[in-house]
Write the structure tokens for this entry.
Amino acid sequence: MQRCHKCGIEKEESDFYIFKPNKSGLHYDCKTCMKLAKKNWDAKNKGMYYIKHKERFGNYRRMKLYGITVDEYEELKQRQDGRCAICGRTQEQSGKSLRELCIDHDHKTGRVRGLLCTRCNTMIAGIEHEDDIFDTLKRVKDYLER
């Protein structure tokens, strides 16, 4: 048994993460308190790591996966008025304000088709490889109308 330094409750050793530098080999705070502290930190610092390193990650990824430069991405974004090519929403309107618009591309040819919000990109990812997309969409429509 070990007492958590945060909540003061005595708990089983399995309720603590392993932390070898500590004399007991376990962390000072219980798993519950640590998860709560992480959740609070994440809420307070929402997206800070991503914002700080966005340029570095985004540039490398765009070039490696899609073969387009930052300038080409920005040009495409400007042509679409910063909106999704399918629904016309901005990322802020679709609830993903920290993320860039997704680069949509044909998986067979690799050709970039346009920029999509996260919601539309996720939606078409599930049906893009279907043999009969329209039949699949009809089944989706029928399902939603139940």
Observations:
- The helical segments are 31-44, 48-66, 70-79, 118-127, 133-144.
- The chain has a mean pLDDT of 82.
- Residues 24 and 55 are 42 Å apart (CA to CA).
- The first strand starts at residue 2 and ends at 3.
